[in-house]
Amino acid sequence: MSIQTFKPVKEGKVREVYDIGDSLIITATDRISAFDVILKNKVEKKGTILTKMSEFWFDFTKDILPNHMISTDVKDMPEFFQNERFDGNSMKCKKLEMLPVECIVRGYITGSGWASYCENESEKLPEPIYTPSTKAEIGDHDENVSFEQTVINLEKIYPGKGQEYAEKLRDYTIALYKKCAEYALSKGIIIADTKFEFGLDENGNVILGDEMLTPDSSRFWPLEGYEPGKGQPSYDKQFVRDWLKANPDSDYLLPEEVIKKTVDKYKEAYELLTGKEFQA
What we know:
Layout: E1 10-11, E2 15-19, E3 23-28, E4 31-34, E5 37-42, H1 46-60, E6 69-71, E7 90-94, E8 97-98, E9 101-108, E10 124-130, E11 133-134, H2 147-157, H3 162-186, E12 189-200, E13 206-209, E14 218-222, H4 238-246, H5 256-274
Antiparallel strand pairs: 1-2, 2-3, 3-7, 4-5, 6-7, 8-12, 9-10, 9-11, 9-12, 12-13, 12-14
């Protein structure tokens, strides 16, 4: 009997989504993007690190709200996925109707736009701030919106529910960030900012979806050597971004040592946070 094959129903910069009928398979590839462009290099095992990290956080936060994760074991997936291309970097997930809001939360000042909040770059904010944005299609940039605008946007799609959903997204985002940032700090990592995405299940409940607290969706800084008033070294794509800025004619092809440094940083963050050695 031939194996049923699947094609991605949705392909993002880094991830592929497969519809297997009653659920989805979300695969984190080894592609890497920066400045909204997919680079020409692959970062070996990056997809597996991202998937394992999301799995860890989904388990850690299920007391705050449910999430879409069903399994990361390919044995729980159709036969098409039971091979090394998908093993370790794929997650079987509940189907959700995704809400069109990127729920960004910032616990520290990053970048130039935050001078109005406090004096120093990289300074800790008195309380985390919620700065939602619209979800852009590939090739477009997300746009920052006010909380009030998220109410209006959601109300258009879900009449009578806009306020309720907008408040839940904000409150869950802050609660998730606080719990995870406090834990990460105890492991030597500062989560400066991150983003979450939520969807609705078949009963209209808000469920956490997408990926969670990976170096792709967050800014991780080492606690050791942290000093407000300047930029911080990080566990994310900073090597990649810095190199691309310094080499504008690279045509988005990176040298191998930049790729290796990046994957080593991802592994280090995973091992610090989970207390487990990364095994691909």
